[in-house]
Design goal:
Elements lengths: L4 E2 L6 H12 L18 H14 L2 H9 L3 E8 L3 E10 L7 E4 L15 H4 L2 E2 L5 E2 L2 E6 L19
Amino acid sequence: MPPIKEYTISISDSKIVHLKKKLEATDFPTDLEDAGWQYGSPIPDIKKFHSHWLNDFDWRAHERRMNELPNFDTQINVDGFGSMDMHFVHQKSGIEGAIPLLFVHGWPGSFMEVSNMLPLLKGGDDGKGGKRPAFNVVAPSLPSYGFSGRVTKVCCAFR
């Protein structure tokens, strides 16, 4: 079994600079008059997201927040694909008999969707004289998302 290692999220300055250059080079199409959402995302909404990512998003603050979580990675072997890197958050409850919980994000999404729930999932006193159930949580970054490896082969079922 491959080793499970602690993982630190560290986005290089060059990747951030590269992304900002790509954002600066964005050429927006003309919005369809009175189209609304039935024809896709309205350009004014896309421009708001674009401006936020280009001018306001603080990569380092978000990186620090992600690194507050118990991040790990390992190699897994997948039939038909070979080995791939898998990033995951693994929070152990510390309470004996804690229930294993696999938290899998959807699309679009990421392992960060579980971050606000993690303190509640550890279990313990509920503040009302009772006990909350305890969970040992594993929240992976799905392959080709977040900090897991990229899928580089087509599965045999799709050939």
